[in-house]
Amino acid sequence: MASHDRARPSVVLGVGAGIAAYKACELLRLFTESGHDVRVVPTRDALRFVGEPTWAALSGNPVTSEVWDSVHEVPHVRIGQGADLVVVAPATADILARAANGLAGDLLTNTLLTARCPVVFAPAMHTEMWEHPATRANVATLRERGSLVIDPAVGRLTGADTGRGRLPDPAQIFEFCRSVLAGRERDLAGRRVVISAGGTREALDPVRYIGNRSSGLQGYALARTAAARGAEVTLVAANVALPDPAGATVVRVESALDLRAAVFEAAENADAVVMAAAVADFRPTARSGSKIKKTSADPEPVHLTKNPDILAELCERRRNGGKPAPEVIAGFAAETDDVLANGRAKLARKGCDLLVVNQVGEGLAFGTPDNAAVVLVAGGEPVEIPRGPKEALADVVWDLIAPRLS
């Protein structure tokens, strides 16, 4: 067995026997190019999809599925003991079943039994297999024991089938794993959280709309970090062109009214709601059923009406004992000037527990990988978050939310 450089995080990549095994090559590349030392442990049948030489060449480490190879190095024990993270992608229904029942018939299942580090499963299988009661029970067992099982994505499966069971995008699995490796506590385990992201669009006609510049990057970072900390995440995404975050259930919407309906439905049983979406304040009073034509005459003025204030309505319903009534409600306020003054006024007016206030404008916040903000806390001192990756800001937000959950 190759000697590992302990200055580099040690990752074991388990590979199950599914057609999605080829996607694990991309996940392996993301780990190695970001400085991780990766040992690939495929199942025997996984090598029918991607061969041993490919894994060895990409990882720079020897590859085997057998406990009998290099026995003097006791690989069935040592690989798991020396890992900082074990991630199984794709995790088939068979692997989930064997892991849940503590079986140890090959090198991968032995490694899962000896690992004392975080373990992440990224399932991939047909929808019927994922929804089978046996698989659901096995997933519940693994989660109860502390393993992180990412819900599969919805999309094209083997053959002509489409449904839930697709392996999440490798880049999203990698971001999820990187959050886990950061060592945050799983302080959101068992919690249900709802996050809104992106920017709503209010239709003028079938072609044109009133919108904003929100990319959804911050909301997606909130979803990724919450999932890595153990939460069950529902992400209501308004017009976002990003891959679904691993571990989140994504509900796609377009308008402010669509977003309101989706958030209220998802929040019925939620412990926390974070409204990170940029929701249009106004919408046209009338929508043309056909494209508005340009003529020589001046265009007709566009008459607007107010959209509902979703954040304020959530807070008011909770205050009056109505539903939904999440325990913690946080909002975002994008400001171009008088940032703190406007933010404090919004916090008082809307009645939420936390308000993340950030300055936006040319090159700030919208569409960028970094962000800076001040979190205004109802009845507490503001928390300043210096400019940095949006995942870092997201983690601070969850650091503030988690202790407020009873």
What's this, in brief?
With 406 residues, the protein is an alpha/beta fold. It is 31% helix and 24% strand. It is built from 13 helices and 19 strands.
CATH architecture designation of the largest domain: 3-Layer(aba) Sandwich
Helix share bin: 25-40%
Q: Low-confidence spans: pLDDT under 50, at least 5 residues?
A: 1-5
What strand order characterises the main sheet?
12-11-8-13-16-17-18-19
What is the CATH H-level superfamily of the largest domain? CoaB-like
Radius of gyration: 24 Å
Strand content: 15-25%
According to DSSP, the number of beta strands is 19
Question: Which class of secondary structure composition applies to the elements?
Answer: alpha/beta
Head-to-tail CA distance between termini: 47 Å
Descriptive overview:
- This protein has 406 residues and is α/β, with parallel strands linked by helices.
- The chain folds into two domains: 10-181, Rossmann fold (3-Layer(aba) Sandwich); 192-404, CoaB-like (Rossmann fold), CATH 3.40.50.
- The chain is 31% helix and 24% strand.
- The protein contains 13 helices and 19 strands.
- The strands form five sheets. Strands 12-11-8-13-16-17-18-19 form an eight-stranded mixed β-sheet, with helices on both faces. The chain has a five-stranded parallel β-sheet with strand order 2-1-3-4-5, sandwiched between helices.
- Helix 1 (24-33) packs parallel to helix 2.
- The chain starts with 9 loop residues before the first strand and ends in a 5-residue tail after the last helix.
- The model is unreliable at 1-5 (pLDDT under 50).
- Keywords: Decarboxylase, Flavoprotein, FMN, Ligase, Lyase, Magnesium, Metal-binding, Multifunctional enzyme.
